[in-house]
Inverse folding.
């Protein structure tokens, strides 16, 4: 009997801690697939003392029975992927089980150069990760991109690189390395649509891993301060060539507070020492770029919007432990413009005002709690308040960095 694919994705501006949650759920799946984005993602998983930051390979590498699939909606830098394969191999991970869709697009040096140039030209920089992601998606839509389907044609690849860069630039020096990387990766390329449908038809348990966050979606995020792909649940369908009826549960990951890197609207941002404290206690620095993340209170208006965009089944709250030691914690419960209630669409309006609900904080460390019921009263009330505001069940709360620090 054919099976349905479940999705795990982020409900905020990325960095919700999805990698670790995917790692946890993945043990019950046969296939874990990425459907959008590229090496702009930095999915961290902590195993013992080892911290892995995955860029493109799905966050299920620690489960040797899981097939890892990079779907057609992604854009992949060949060199980054080869480096990631080497790093994983050195840790004893078998990368022969990684499959890449023939429909995925290749990120080339001119995409990276164009990303940097576009940022320099913008009056208000987006603060991209500088990985060439936007320009690679532009080429895909403009029908001038290079796909994995054509990867075995080394001449065509070299021609594509040369055609897009001026003679004598660094990019030309890279041609050989890229062609070499392509030759290594060619054996991982499959007909991505046939592959996934065969697996679903055979009843395989399939998990789809989102990248970035719902509020960075190119269509429904805080445009233009977004990434260039569809990061929401619908993006899993278009990014893998499956229909909505093939989707089972949609699980959304929410950090217990909010962060974002780069520019753009952030209604609950804190510009005072409380924001600094969140950054320090939560170690909020970019996985890919090392940039300090902007920090603020949990935004229930944004979260409810993301719940709706994704048709969410259940939520997971991460990094609740970071809030230990705050005397009071707040949640944004409403937006107002000119005194009138407003929706998330108003997030970027300069005259936006937020309504805050203040809750009692807690001092106790909570890293040893394994049941939501064991949390200190104030922490439990905080989780309950989020559940009530977003209207979906909270099935898991992370209370520390270690793999085992989870309360159910
Ligand atoms: P791009 O995806 O590199 O084009 O960057 C566009 C925006 O998305 C910038 O604000 C980035 O900081 C943000 N972004 C991209 N990937 C991630 C991520 O994995 N986590 C958090 N923010 C991201």
């Amino acid at each position: 009997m054919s099976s349905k694919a479940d999705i795990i994705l982020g409900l905020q501006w990325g960095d919700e801690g999805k990698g670790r949650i995917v790692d946890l759920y993945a043990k019950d799946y046969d296939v874990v697939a990425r459907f959008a984005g590229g090496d702009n993602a930095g999915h961290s998983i902590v195993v013992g003392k080892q911290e892995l930051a995955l860029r493109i390979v799905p966050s299920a590498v620690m489960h040797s029975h899981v097939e890892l699939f990079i779907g057609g909606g992604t854009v992949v830098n060949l060199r980054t992927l080869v480096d990631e394969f080497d790093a994983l191999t050195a840790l004893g991970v078998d990368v022969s089980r990684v499959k890449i869709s023939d429909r995925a697009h290749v990120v080339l040096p001119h995409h990276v150069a164009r990303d940097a140039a576009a940022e320099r030209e913008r009056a208000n920089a987006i603060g991209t990760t500088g990985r060439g992601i936007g320009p690679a998606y532009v080429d895909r839509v403009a029908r001038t991109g290079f796909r994995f389907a054509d990867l075995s044609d080394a001449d065509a690849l070299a021609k594509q690189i040369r055609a897009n860069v001026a003679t004598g630039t660094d990019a030309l020096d890279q041609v050989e390395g890229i062609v070499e990387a392509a030759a290594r990766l060619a054996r991982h390329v499959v007909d991505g649509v046939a592959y996934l449908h065969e697996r679903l038809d055979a009843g395989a348990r399939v998990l789809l891993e989102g990248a970035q966050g719902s509020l960075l979606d190119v269509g429904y995020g805080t445009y233009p301060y977004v990434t260039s792909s569809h990061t929401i649940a619908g993006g899993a369908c278009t990014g893998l060539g499956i229909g909505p009826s093939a989707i089972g549960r949609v699980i959304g990951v929410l950090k217990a507070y909010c962060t974002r890197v780069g520019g753009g609207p952030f209604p609950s941002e804190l510009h005072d020492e409380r924001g600094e404290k969140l950054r320090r206690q939560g170690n909020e620095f970019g996985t890919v770029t090392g940039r300090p993340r902007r920090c603020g209170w949990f935004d229930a208006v944004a979260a409810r919007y993301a719940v709706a965009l994704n048709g969410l089944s259940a939520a997971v709250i991460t990094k609740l432990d970071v809030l230990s030691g705050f005397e009071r914690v707040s949640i944004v419960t409403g937006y107002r413009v000119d005194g009138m209630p407003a929706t998330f669409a108003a997030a970027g309006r300069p005259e936006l005002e937020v309504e805050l609900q203040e809750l009692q904080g807690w001092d106790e460390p909570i890293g040893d709690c394994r049941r939501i019921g064991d949390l200190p009263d104030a922490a439990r009330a905080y989780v309950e308040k989020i559940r009530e505001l977003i209207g979906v069940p909270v099935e898991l709360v992370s209370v520390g960095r270690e793999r085992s620090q989870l309360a159910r």
Summary: Residues 13-15, 40-42, 126-129, 131, 133-134, 212, 216, 225, 227-228, 261-262 surround inosinic acid (CB under 6 Å). The chain has a mean pLDDT of 95. The radius of gyration is 21 Å. The first strand starts at residue 5 and ends at 10.
